[in-house]
Amino acid sequence: MKRIIKLTSVMVTFFCLSAFTIINSNLEEEGYKIGDLAEDFLLKNIDGNMVSLSNYKDAKGFIITFTCNTCPFAVMYEDRIIALNNKYASKGYPVIAIMPNNTNIKPGDNFNAMKQRAQEKGFTFPYLIDEQQHVYPKFGATKTPQIFILHKTQKGNVVKYIGTIDDNYKNASAVNTKYVEDAVDALLKGKEVQVTETRAIGCSIKI
Amino acid sequence: MKLKMLIIAVLLICSCADKNKETEAATQNTKKEVVITNNESKKIDLEVYNFAGFEKFLSKKDDKIYVINFWATWCAPCIKELPYFEKLNETYKNKNVEVILVSLDFSHLYEKKLKPFIKKKQLQSKVIALDDADMNSWIPKVNEKWSGSIPATVIYKNDERKFFEKSFNYEELKKEVEDFFN
Taking CA A22 as the corner, what is the angle to CA A18 and CA A28, rounded to the nearest 5 degrees? Predict the structure, then answer.
């Protein structure tokens, strides 16, 4: 009898896991498109507080940044992410960084490591952990680093840009086009974003 | 001699304050890699291309099946699947299949990371490096659907092609290639 219960529970667990995987991969494929409304979320910040977009009453929008400690591309962009927050938070577009990886696969991205990295680099923005890995699939994020710019309207937060920060990961001073800055500048002027989607190599999100 | 240095290094690291631990360890790692470079990577000739130069590898029309895998030494899932690509190359090389491993490693780490890795793993498939920082301009040219995460793989024969932004196991990879035989 005991064995049967055990076997059943294993089967149920397996079934649940596989069902979850299917749902998860479906969501991943969809994700937000330009013009979609982004749902709010509630995620834990490295200071222990819970953060959601609705906390930011005065914000005009957000620079949502999926990033992590362990991806070399993400690390190369850290200083530029800090610079984005320093430039745009006061103008109403703060950076909200979210770490989407499964920390069992990437222990270097666990909560303590996140705290440590944020302290070392002097992050001036929240660095949230997507512990349940429920938020990144909604966005349709596939990799780190990846940016989603949201613009707050009466209907909600509209996705205005999806992609990379600029066109030269190697050398910030050799950048020709600053996609994220161009997009936020346009939004601040009440104009349409010209380049709404860009792509860059990044580290796949670890599930 | 090496052992002695290592002991000294360990002692040094231990004697440092907690705060400095990581930096010290990192420095030691770097030094160790330099040593490896000097000994082992000199003989490896790495072909490096910008996208314009690389494009020819995506558009050959010689009836061969090309398996183009985009990877990097820093990408854990890529490293995990590399042996499958190696096995594929070995098993099918007489059947008109060629695997090309396209490294997206950072160019400043070719000597320190990529070449020592190729040497250590004794990679038999052709390895080339793609070094083109303006990624948004070339990623869609590889495939319109590619979001840019790696591993990613293109399998093609003349005008027929398939793109995968995922990790493979050997069986899946084999099946995809064998589909091109039909």
Answer: 140
The interface pTM score, or ipTM, of the predicted complex is: 0.78
**Cβ-count burial A150-171 (b if 16+ within 10 Å, e if not):** bbbeeeebbbbbbbbbbbbbee
Residue (of B113, B120, B127) closest to B70 by Cα position: B127
Residue A150 makes CB contacts below 8 A (sequence gap 6+) with A38, A53, A61, A62, A64, A157, A158, A159, A160
pLDDT tier for residue B14 given thresholds of 50, 70 and 90: very low
CATH number corresponding to B47-179: 3.40.30.10
**Closest by Cβ to A199, choosing from B104, B139, B151:** B139
Burial of B174 (0-12, 13-18, 19+ CB in 10 A): middle
In chain B, the largest separation of any two C-alpha atoms, in whole Å, equals 64
Identify which of B70, B74, B134 has the shortest CB distance to residue A167: B134
Contact A169 B134 (CB under 8 A): no
Please tell me what DSSP assigns to residue B111.
Answer: I
With tokens 């992050």, the residue in question is: A123
Residue type, B1: M
pLDDT along chain A (207 residues), means of 10: 54 48 45 97 98 97 98 96 98 98 97 98 98 97 97 97 96 95 98 96 94
**Model-level pTM?**
0.79
Calculate ∠ Cα B85-B88-B91, nearest 5°: 150
The per-type count for chain A, helices as H runs and strands as E runs, is 5, 10
